[in-house]
Design brief:
By secondary structure, the chain is an all-alpha fold. The protein has one domain (2-120): PRD domain (PTS-regulatory domain, PRD). It is 65% helix and 0% strand. It is built from five helices and no strands. The chain has helices spanning 2-12, 19-38, 45-63, 81-91, 102-120. Helix 2 packs across helix 3 and helix 4 crosses helix 5 (102-120). The longest helix is centred in the N-terminal third of the chain and has 20 residues, at 19-38. It starts with a helix and ends with a helix.
Length: 124
């Protein structure tokens, strides 16, 4: 989709990015698009940019075998369980060379939760 290409171009235009990083980002962004459409979530462009930046960081962390600090399990209670499940589905794919940790799943779920809340209650 052209929007994904535009988002990645905007995120990476001032940096020399590894083509494999961009390719992996596209795969994940398309997976996000498919999963969110399936559950009826419409992601606005400004949120796509935030998600794209997060996904690029995620891909780099996985490539460099870096881990974020562990988050407290109680934080998951602040996110709707469907958004956490959505995040895990997006990040875990059969045959991937990396294992997703709970911190990464939580951080992506925060994006989905913010969108869900905006769509459920636009006054937020």
């Amino acid at each position: 989709m052209q929007m994904m290409d535009d988002i990645l171009k905007e995120l990476t235009e001032s940096k020399q990015e590894n083509k494999s990083e961009i390719s992996e980002c596209k795969v994940i962004l398309h997976r996000i698009e498919g999963e969110t459409r399936r559950v009826g979530i419409d992601i606005p462009k400004d949120r796509w940019l935030a998600i794209g930046a997060h996904v690029l960081g995620f891909v780099r962390r996985m490539k460099n075998k870096e881990r974020l600090p562990v988050i407290e399990a109680e934080l998951f209670a602040e996110i709707h369980p469907d958004m956490v499940a959505l995040s895990r589905r997006v990040l875990v794919s059969e045959g991937e060379a990396w294992q997703v940790d709970e911190t990464e799943a939580f951080l992506l779920a925060v994006h989905f939760e913010a969108i869900r809340v905006m769509q459920t209650d636009p006054s937020q």
